[in-house]
Design brief:
alpha/beta, 9-stranded mixed beta sheet, 9 strands, binds iron/sulfur cluster
């Protein structure tokens, strides 16, 4: 019953935020959000779990200029978290009412267990599974797993100009490989969502990149700014850690990385809220560290929302 209440409120909150973004609701109307937020706090959302990121590897075949995770090819493929540990985290998350998760990295398709982990996630009842990938290394078996399980694949394209994209990823030929990966996913009618991180090199290219993706068959597209986290720190002047967050990480989110360390979200990796080896995530989700962080973000006017539609 508690879960159903939280989900209903989540849905209403999400719909309200979407309306804000789409119609740029003026400040007076925005204040109507506050009672809803207060209601969510009373409903215990600051202690719940609604969305789980699993950063299954820190390694990536690319080396993007802005990467908040600081991923690169030289980092370990597998660290302390083994297959059984990831499965245990997913079981615990389900027991806490969580039904949405994303596999991310690093580059998650490098991990030999990604397919098995996706099947396990579905088996234990995650109704919404996502993979965030650079789409350069998609194996046939993974593409078929995405199709079979109805996985939402999210990816980044930094420009429709191959030279600019490759300059940002630090890897010649990455544009061609990503585009070929997108074409394969479109052919298999896999659900896709594209994002474009805007920085000096590509800031003027959002519209043409959106058109390019639309021609490929990708209709879901958003942009974001560089976060001053990880390698992104070098690209953002005068960044303050809390100011780099999107502002919604107070709302039932948790990220677990390849060492078992847990953070309130993928960006807030400077705030450790515990390690799930060997104790698991229940104590972390119910713990005061995570709760205090969520309260701080929540009370800071919900943080700043920087994602916008082009
Ligand atoms: S593809 Fe993603 S994980 Fe890999 S370096 Fe680029 S931003 Fe980081």
């Amino acid at each position: 019953m508690q879960t159903a209440t939280n989900e209903s409120l989540d849905f209403v909150g999400h719909a309200f935020r979407t309306a804000q973004e789409l119609f740029r609701v003026p400040s007076l109307a925005r204040s109507a959000l506050h009672p809803l937020k207060r209601l969510r706090v009373r409903a215990g959302c600051l202690k719940g779990l609604d969305f789980l990121w699993l950063e299954i590897t820190r390694r990536c075949n690319l080396r993007c200029a802005h990467c908040y995770a600081g991923s690169r090819p030289q980092l370990p493929l597998i660290e302390k978290m083994q297959f059984a540990d990831w499965c245990r985290v997913m079981e615990e998350a389900r027991s806490l009412g969580c039904r949405r998760l994303q596999f991310i990295g690093g580059e998650p398709t490098l991990h030999p267990d990604l397919g098995r982990l996706l099947h396990y996630a579905k088996r234990v009842g995650f109704r919404h599974c996502e993979v965030f990938t650079n789409a350069t290394l998609l194996r046939d078996d993974l593409v078929e797993t995405f199709k079979e399980l109805g996985v939402l694949v999210r990816f980044s394209l930094y420009s429709s100009d191959p030279a600019i994209h490759d300059q940002i990823t630090g890897q010649a030929g990455s544009f061609e490989r990503t585009v070929e990966g997108i074409r394969r996913l479109v052919r298999r009618k896999i659900r896709l969502d594209a994002s474009m991180i805007l920085m000096d090199q590509n800031a003027a290219q959002a519209k043409q990149t959106k058109r390019f993706l639309r021609r490929l068959g990708v209709t879901s597209f958003g942009t974001d700014r560089v976060r001053g986290i990880g390698r992104g720190e070098q690209l953002v002047n005068g960044a303050r850690a809390m100011g780099e967050l999107c502002g919604y990480c107070w709302s039932g989110k948790l990220c677990v990385d390849a060492s078992g360390d847990a953070y309130p979200c993928v960006f807030s990796r400077f705030v450790s809220v515990g390690n799930c080896l060997p104790g698991g995530i229940k104590d972390i989700v119910k713990g005061e560290k995570l709760s205090a962080f969520r309260r701080e973000v929540f009370l800071d006017k919900g943080g700043q929302k920087n994602v916008r539609q082009v």
